[in-house]
Amino acid sequence: MARVIKQRPMNWIERLYIFECLRGLFTTLKHAARGLFRYETLPTISYPEGQPEIRHTYRAKHRLMLRPDGTPRCVACGMCAAACPAHCIFIEATQSDDPRIEKRVMRFDIDHLTCVFCGLCAEACPVDALRMDTKKIVFEHRTREEFVAHMSDLMDWDPKDYPEDAQSQMAPGGTKNKQALETWGMEVK
Amino acid sequence: MSNFYNMPKLPTENSPKVEIFVDDKAVMVPGDTNLLEALKAVGIETPHVCYHPYLPVSGNCRQCLVEQEGPRGRMLVIACYTPVTPGMKIFTPASSARVKNARKATQEFMLVNHPLDCPICDKAGECTLQENYMEAGQNESRMRPEYGKNYHGNPDHQFIDAKGQVRGGKHVDLGPRVLLDEERCVQCDRCVRFMRSIAKSEQLQLAGRADHTYITTFPGEKLDHEYDLCVTDVCPVGAMTAKYFRFQKRVWLLSHTPTISMDDSLGANIWLDHADGRIYRVMPRCNPEVNRSWLSNTSRLAFQGFNKNRLPAMGFNVIKSAMGEGKVAVVMGGACTIEDMAAARMLKDSMGDKVELFGGSLLKVSEPDGIAKSGDPCANRAGLKLMGFADVSELLKRAGEFKVLLTVNADLFGEDAAAAKALEAIPSRIAFSAFNDETAKKATLAFGIKHWSEVQGTMVNNLNILQKLNACPVCPDAELRPAYDVISELAGKKFESASAAFKKAGEYASVLAGLSYDTIKSTGKLLEGGEA
Amino acid sequence: MDIIESKTWIEWVITIAKFAFCFVPVLYILLLIPMERRGAGFMQDRQGPNRSYIKIPYFGKIRLFGYIQNMCDGTKLFFKEMFAPAGVNKVLYYVAPAIPFAIVFLSPCVIPWFGPMVFDWGDKAVRIPGSIIDSDVGVLLLMGFSSLSAFGAILAGWASKSKYTFLGALRTSSMTISYEVCLGLSLMGILLLAGSFNLTDIVSWQENHVWGIVAQPVAFFCFLIASIAETGRAPFDVAEGEPELVAGYHTEYGAMQFGLFYMGEYSHICINSFLIATLFLGGYAVPFVTTETMQAHMGGSLAILCGILAFLALAFLHMLHRYSKKLAATQQTHRFEVLQEYKLYKICGWAAVVVFVVLGACAWFLFNPANMAINGFAIGSFATALGTALIHLLVLVVKSVCFCWVWIWVRWTLPRFRYDHVMHLGWKIILNIALINLVVTAVIAKLVGGN
């Protein structure tokens, strides 16, 4: 329910306007002086040269998490595509070669031109296969087709960039990969 | 498992009404059926897994529990196997916490070792277990994570997964068309009952006892029945999956078009499940009078050829001029709708005695199999008769009289090349066909039309039931038109729509007069006075 | 000939040279536009335009703190195609933008840029007024000129044949009329005190008594508000209110035609700030120091001036140094480029410091009017007068720049008034305050027994 906020009625000094004007002028003067004398403390950044600091919770470009053997964790359930409000995820599934795994993703495309970066896909993923923590926020390509990230593109990430994430370290090249492979490679009866 | 199977009695329009008390309220329900169907008739859905209206009642899932007031107090009974008796007192979860808890507990037991495969399961979205869970379950998981899910079924199929859990039987190859996932199976034995009672070929069996029960075939045998894909329909969970549809599409992304399978004169009612402009699967549409819930593999898998080998629609003016060369024989195939026939009758009206109408197929008529096939491959034979078309065999005898042969969806050369050889005497052979089939190849002029899955229309099946076809938006070529549209243009008076063509058909066949698409129910309309 | 011979050649030279002041408002545009854009940026916690650059050898990309951007914009406007929409009154359409811009060259004529230069030239005592035209009705002339610029807007609005421009023109005209009244009335108080319409007299009254802002604080506020309104800038820019009228009277203008309006507006600000500085801030008068004291210690005064300038250069260098240090510590990919660019500024800054220090030292030690002569012709008093004029001019410029800043500051702070509020403010509040102020001033002046 909408909350009704009662505004305090203005007193006569405020209604005179001139003093409020002066207060406003003082505020802007402070900011202007900050820009002039403390230029480096401006909250804006010189964008292409200076990159913003992005936290890992920021919803940036997607990546597909990998199993210890390097295959995507994705089971092609289509939950991300179902959750996607922009309908920018295209998935095709096929039979997996691994007998322990039933379904495997054959095509996983994300159209980043259509994507609204809401993060619902990553939320919806039941197997933690899709994440948006790459911190890549710049998408620059020549053609529209290149904005569609294919599976190979989404799987192309380095575990070294995610040193604190145990799941990422289990991927090939990660510190926990060997250990994870041992568990993963359990004997199939 | 009980050895005593009996088919459930389903309520009909003529069922006697009796009064029973549901949650202390008096309601009138059909009196000659079981409690589950009776409650459904008054709008109370009872969750069930093993019960299927067209399969013998087995009563093993215990999901449909209700409370009944009896001589020894209120007892939990299964609704699917309890006949309705006048004055019985029934309590549903709406009033009884005991029923609610019992169903919840049953649900929880069923899910104990049911794998969390929903994301990758092809049944997800139309799974009975999911529906029941949303309705009766919804309990917090009491699974101890260190124990996890375990598979106790066929020891040959067990393996230990990356989390150290006992899994197994993930894709057991039952036969050429069906895969079994033993882990997902809830042992409702619907598939076993289907093969035993409906298919009359006991190819599936339950093996093992209790928690170790699993579905299997006899050693060395395969599941390869004409109706074996029906087990994937009856399976309430994703245990039985059809290979052709495996991982093709999540079911909630499919749109459904109700129509009629036009490859058999029974006219099995089907759903065409389509998405992205193509048909992904064909599912039987329940029609108690016609095919119940069954569909043959032939009808079901026919869709795979619907968009292949299609004929383009080109050169209509040449055909128009070719029609004037002499006496015309129009042959309508079994896949033609009543609307197409009305257009052909109009063509005869406009050209007079120059045109003679024939219909039918050269294929052999076989015996009905009693499930969902009449054995007559000419689907609309009753319709042809109704609209006054002579049989095609007569044409074969009088082939010499004609100068022009116009075949509409009638692949005479492909059906019986030897018999159709007589037709080669006709100099100008025009083929209206969806496919580039033998007749189209032999024809002097071939023109592509829409396939029956893409048109709206009606057909009369061998039980004399008028059934509706609906257009599924999967036509591969925007240029293609329905046959009635093309033929009526030949006749010089183009139909505006299928319903206009159907109205015109009423002029030629009095039984159809006064009917419209709106008055034909989805299960069809039994025509009176006509002959099957 | 008589007229020519009535004055010495140096008088003629200076009189003619004074016409150069006509270009001051145009030069101010070069100052005001970057001030406006970057000032607005700073007030909104952003950087403002700072990307355009000129590439020079060694130092690389020279951005001049975003100053190059204005050159680029000017070049763009200049080379864009001039066009007229179909159906406009071609003559008026093309003439209109020139009007406000032409006024700009007239208005500076009456502003006293420095105190009257009085010096001995040979055996003649020469007196040269500080304004180009030392008119006794200087204030009236100035007011007349500045209200003329409204004609540009009105004609443009009418000639453009568009609803938006027409509405904009209507608003401009009505607002100009309303605020001219307030402007004139709030001015009357100070005129009453000074007892003259001559701007030089007003300034010298302030020099002798007290600044106008102290004598007439209420009039100062009224005048400030009214002149902001008269320039048609926020918060009074209803004439070109974007949400309502697209761009007001200059909607249909592009290229340099629009550029003329744009420059006219900034020049108008410049002139108005000169006017305020002259009327209320003592004009060219140096605060706390009389002209006589200054002239008596001209060498010291010039040295102090040089010292101030050197200090400013040092402050600039300090800011550069501090910012380069911070920049070098960041990860910005262009930091070395920028540091290289700053090298140039540092060199310039240090050069300025050295030059000012040397000049100051020279002035301190070497400036002695009594000994100054060229080929035996004593120019000591002329040099003193020239130095005074220089200091006066700089003081006036500083004061006016401060007021220019007020224009920009107010624009980026206060939200736009609604049109009826503007009229309400003009006619019902400021006019009344100005009237009361006038009456009170008159009464007090009479009681105190001024002129």
Task: List the keywords.
heterotrimer; A: 189 residues; alpha+beta; Alpha-Beta Plaits; 2 domains; 3-stranded antiparallel sheet; two-stranded antiparallel ribbon; 7 helices; C: 451 residues; mainly alpha; two-stranded antiparallel sheet; 6 strands; 68% helix; 4% strand
Task: Describe the model.
The complex is a heterotrimer of chains A (about 190), B (about 525) and C (about 450). With about 190 residues, chain A is of the alpha+beta class. Chain A folds into 2 domains: about 15-45; about 65-185, Alpha-Beta Plaits, CATH 3.30.70.3270. Helix content of chain A is about 30%, strand content about 10%. Chain A has a 3-stranded antiparallel β-sheet with strand order 2-3-5. A two-stranded antiparallel sheet of chain A has the order 1-4. The longest helix of chain A has 20 residues, at about 20-35. Chain A is elongated, with a radius of gyration of 25 Å. Chain B has about 525 residues and is an alpha/beta fold. Chain B has 3 domains: about 15-110, Ubiquitin-like (UB roll) (Roll); about 115-125 and about 150-255, Alpha-Beta Plaits (2-Layer Sandwich), CATH 3.30.70; about 315-525, Rossmann fold, CATH 3.40.50.740. Chain B is built from 15 helices and 24 strands. In chain B, strands 18-17-16-19-20-21 form a 6-stranded parallel β-sheet. A 5-stranded mixed β-sheet of chain B has the order 2-1-5-3-4, sandwiched between helices. In chain B, strand 6 (about 160) and strand 7 form a beta hairpin. Chain B is elongated, with a radius of gyration of 27 Å. The model of chain B has no long low-confidence stretch (mean pLDDT about 90). Chain C has helices at about 1-5, 10-15, 25-45, 65-80, 90-95, 100-105, 140-160, 165-195, 200-210, 210-215, 215-230, 240-245, 255-280, 290-295, 300-330, 335-365, 380-410, 420-450, and strands spanning about 55, 60, 115-120, 125-130, 375, 375-380. Chain C has 18 helices and 6 strands. In chain C, about 70% of the residues lie in helices and about 5% in strands. Chain C has about 450 residues and is mainly α. In chain C, strand 5 (about 375) and strand 6 form a beta hairpin. Chain C has a domain at about 1-50 and about 80-285 and about 420-450. At the A-C interface, helix 2 of A face helix 3 and helix 15 of C.
Bin the helical content of chain C. Answer: 55-70%
- Describe the main β-sheet of chain C briefly: 2 strands, antiparallel
Integer average pLDDT of chain B: 89
Content-based structural category of chain B = alpha/beta
Ends apart, CA distance between termini of chain B: 42 Å
Biggest beta sheet summary of chain B? 6 strands, parallel
What is the beta-strand fraction of chain C?
Answer: under 5%
Structural class of chain C: mainly alpha
